[in-house]
Write a structure and sequence with these properties.
Layout: E1 14-15, E2 17-22, E3 28-33, E4 36-41, E5 44-51, H1 55-63, E6 65-70, H2 76-84, H3 92-95, E7 100-102, E8 109-111, E9 116-128, E10 131-143, H4 156-159, E11 162-165, E12 170-173
Antiparallel strand pairs: 1-11, 2-3, 2-6, 4-5, 5-10, 6-9, 7-8, 9-10, 11-12
Protein backbone atom coordinates (compact mmCIF):
# COMPACT_ATOMS: atom_id res chain seq x y z
CA UNK A 1 0.00 0.00 0.00
CA UNK A 2 1.29 3.45 -0.90
CA UNK A 3 1.88 5.99 1.84
CA UNK A 4 1.29 9.73 1.39
CA UNK A 5 4.38 11.89 1.95
CA UNK A 6 2.75 15.19 0.92
CA UNK A 7 3.21 17.49 -2.05
CA UNK A 8 6.89 17.49 -3.00
CA UNK A 9 9.05 18.18 -6.04
CA UNK A 10 9.81 14.50 -6.62
CA UNK A 11 10.33 13.26 -10.14
CA UNK A 12 12.79 10.61 -11.17
CA UNK A 13 15.17 11.45 -12.63
CA UNK A 14 15.84 15.20 -12.46
CA UNK A 15 18.36 16.15 -15.11
CA UNK A 16 21.39 18.19 -14.13
CA UNK A 17 21.35 21.09 -16.59
CA UNK A 18 23.80 23.98 -16.63
CA UNK A 19 22.08 27.13 -17.89
CA UNK A 20 24.56 29.68 -19.22
CA UNK A 21 23.79 33.35 -19.84
CA UNK A 22 25.47 36.73 -20.13
CA UNK A 23 24.71 39.52 -17.70
CA UNK A 24 24.18 43.15 -18.73
CA UNK A 25 27.96 43.77 -18.68
CA UNK A 26 28.66 40.71 -20.85
CA UNK A 27 30.06 38.55 -18.05
CA UNK A 28 29.33 34.83 -18.57
CA UNK A 29 27.33 33.12 -15.83
CA UNK A 30 26.25 29.54 -15.18
CA UNK A 31 23.47 28.14 -13.01
CA UNK A 32 22.59 24.54 -12.22
CA UNK A 33 18.95 23.71 -12.90
CA UNK A 34 17.18 20.46 -12.16
CA UNK A 35 13.74 21.85 -13.00
CA UNK A 36 13.90 21.46 -16.76
CA UNK A 37 13.64 19.29 -19.81
CA UNK A 38 12.48 18.99 -23.40
CA UNK A 39 9.00 20.47 -23.81
CA UNK A 40 8.37 20.38 -27.58
CA UNK A 41 9.54 18.40 -30.59
CA UNK A 42 8.43 20.94 -33.19
CA UNK A 43 9.80 23.49 -32.75
CA UNK A 44 12.52 21.73 -30.76
CA UNK A 45 12.35 23.40 -27.34
CA UNK A 46 13.62 23.03 -23.80
CA UNK A 47 12.13 24.56 -20.65
CA UNK A 48 14.02 25.60 -17.53
CA UNK A 49 12.45 27.07 -14.40
CA UNK A 50 14.32 29.83 -12.61
CA UNK A 51 13.43 31.72 -9.44
CA UNK A 52 13.02 35.48 -9.90
CA UNK A 53 15.64 36.18 -7.20
CA UNK A 54 18.40 34.52 -9.25
CA UNK A 55 20.90 36.44 -11.35
CA UNK A 56 20.15 34.01 -14.18
CA UNK A 57 16.55 35.29 -14.18
CA UNK A 58 17.81 38.86 -14.71
CA UNK A 59 20.16 37.68 -17.46
CA UNK A 60 17.43 35.75 -19.26
CA UNK A 61 15.05 38.70 -19.12
CA UNK A 62 17.73 41.05 -20.47
CA UNK A 63 19.25 38.83 -23.19
CA UNK A 64 16.42 36.42 -24.17
CA UNK A 65 18.98 33.71 -24.89
CA UNK A 66 20.70 30.88 -23.05
CA UNK A 67 22.52 27.63 -23.52
CA UNK A 68 21.93 24.36 -21.73
CA UNK A 69 25.10 22.38 -21.15
CA UNK A 70 25.14 18.72 -20.12
CA UNK A 71 28.03 18.15 -17.71
CA UNK A 72 29.73 14.75 -17.49
CA UNK A 73 29.96 13.08 -14.07
CA UNK A 74 33.62 14.02 -13.66
CA UNK A 75 32.43 17.65 -13.29
CA UNK A 76 29.94 17.01 -10.48
CA UNK A 77 31.73 19.40 -8.08
CA UNK A 78 31.69 22.22 -10.62
CA UNK A 79 28.03 21.61 -11.45
CA UNK A 80 27.12 21.62 -7.76
CA UNK A 81 29.10 24.85 -7.28
CA UNK A 82 27.09 26.54 -10.05
CA UNK A 83 23.96 25.82 -8.00
CA UNK A 84 25.22 26.98 -4.61
CA UNK A 85 27.11 30.18 -5.51
CA UNK A 86 25.51 33.31 -6.90
CA UNK A 87 26.81 35.02 -10.00
CA UNK A 88 26.38 38.25 -8.05
CA UNK A 89 29.24 37.16 -5.77
CA UNK A 90 31.65 35.40 -8.13
CA UNK A 91 32.67 34.80 -11.71
CA UNK A 92 31.57 31.20 -11.32
CA UNK A 93 32.86 29.77 -14.58
CA UNK A 94 36.34 31.19 -14.00
CA UNK A 95 36.30 30.15 -10.30
CA UNK A 96 35.45 26.60 -11.38
CA UNK A 97 38.44 26.58 -13.74
CA UNK A 98 36.24 26.12 -16.81
CA UNK A 99 36.13 27.92 -20.15
CA UNK A 100 33.24 30.12 -21.36
CA UNK A 101 32.81 30.18 -25.14
CA UNK A 102 30.56 32.61 -27.02
CA UNK A 103 27.83 30.80 -28.94
CA UNK A 104 27.91 31.61 -32.63
CA UNK A 105 24.09 31.48 -32.93
CA UNK A 106 22.63 32.97 -29.71
CA UNK A 107 23.62 35.74 -27.31
CA UNK A 108 24.86 33.37 -24.61
CA UNK A 109 28.00 31.49 -23.61
CA UNK A 110 28.53 27.78 -23.15
CA UNK A 111 31.12 25.77 -21.26
CA UNK A 112 33.78 24.27 -23.52
CA UNK A 113 34.50 21.31 -21.23
CA UNK A 114 30.89 20.04 -21.26
CA UNK A 115 30.28 17.75 -24.26
CA UNK A 116 26.68 18.63 -25.19
CA UNK A 117 25.28 22.15 -25.65
CA UNK A 118 21.77 23.26 -26.63
CA UNK A 119 21.76 26.84 -27.92
CA UNK A 120 18.41 28.51 -27.27
CA UNK A 121 16.41 31.66 -27.87
CA UNK A 122 13.68 32.41 -25.34
CA UNK A 123 10.36 31.93 -27.11
CA UNK A 124 7.99 32.09 -24.12
CA UNK A 125 7.89 32.62 -20.38
CA UNK A 126 5.35 31.16 -17.98
CA UNK A 127 4.92 32.41 -14.41
CA UNK A 128 4.56 29.46 -11.99
CA UNK A 129 4.62 30.32 -8.30
CA UNK A 130 8.12 31.42 -7.27
CA UNK A 131 9.57 30.32 -10.62
CA UNK A 132 9.43 31.58 -14.16
CA UNK A 133 9.63 28.87 -16.77
CA UNK A 134 11.75 29.96 -19.72
CA UNK A 135 10.95 28.05 -22.88
CA UNK A 136 13.82 28.18 -25.31
CA UNK A 137 13.66 27.18 -28.94
CA UNK A 138 16.72 25.06 -29.63
CA UNK A 139 18.39 26.67 -32.63
CA UNK A 140 21.46 24.44 -32.61
CA UNK A 141 23.00 21.55 -30.70
CA UNK A 142 26.76 21.20 -30.48
CA UNK A 143 28.34 17.88 -29.48
CA UNK A 144 32.01 17.06 -28.94
CA UNK A 145 33.22 14.48 -31.46
CA UNK A 146 34.68 12.45 -28.60
CA UNK A 147 31.19 11.53 -27.33
CA UNK A 148 29.74 10.48 -30.67
CA UNK A 149 29.16 6.80 -31.30
CA UNK A 150 30.04 4.91 -34.47
CA UNK A 151 26.57 5.84 -35.78
CA UNK A 152 27.41 9.57 -35.52
CA UNK A 153 24.89 10.12 -32.69
CA UNK A 154 25.68 11.22 -29.13
CA UNK A 155 26.50 8.20 -26.96
CA UNK A 156 25.11 8.51 -23.43
CA UNK A 157 27.84 6.29 -21.96
CA UNK A 158 30.54 8.52 -23.44
CA UNK A 159 28.73 11.69 -22.33
CA UNK A 160 28.40 10.26 -18.77
CA UNK A 161 25.62 12.61 -17.64
CA UNK A 162 24.34 12.43 -14.09
CA UNK A 163 21.02 13.05 -12.39
CA UNK A 164 19.76 14.72 -9.23
CA UNK A 165 17.73 12.87 -6.58
CA UNK A 166 15.75 15.64 -4.88
CA UNK A 167 14.48 13.38 -2.06
CA UNK A 168 17.97 12.30 -0.97
CA UNK A 169 19.69 15.51 -2.21
CA UNK A 170 22.33 13.47 -4.03
CA UNK A 171 23.69 13.09 -7.56
CA UNK A 172 23.61 9.69 -9.25
CA UNK A 173 25.21 8.22 -12.33
CA UNK A 174 23.11 7.18 -15.30
CA UNK A 175 22.92 3.38 -15.60
CA UNK A 176 23.16 0.91 -18.44
CA UNK A 177 20.60 0.23 -21.15
CA UNK A 178 17.68 -1.93 -20.01
CA UNK A 179 15.57 -2.05 -23.20
CA UNK A 180 15.11 -0.46 -26.61
CA UNK A 181 12.60 2.39 -26.73
CA UNK A 182 9.60 2.01 -29.05
CA UNK A 183 10.10 -1.75 -29.22
CA UNK A 184 10.16 -3.11 -25.63
CA UNK A 185 6.38 -2.78 -25.44
CA UNK A 186 5.55 -4.17 -28.89
CA UNK A 187 4.79 -7.62 -27.48
CA UNK A 188 1.94 -6.08 -25.45
CA UNK A 189 0.39 -4.29 -28.42
CA UNK A 190 -2.75 -5.90 -29.80
Amino acid sequence: MKQSIGAKTLLYPHPVLIVCTYDAAGTPDAMTAAWGGICSSDPPSVAVSVQKVRKTYENLMARSAFTVCIPPARYVAEADYFGIESGRNADKIRAAGLTAVQSDVVDAPYIAEFPVVLECRVSQTVEIGIHTQFIGEIVDVKVDGSVLGSDGKPNVEKIAPFIYDSAARTYRAVGSEIARAFSAGLALKR
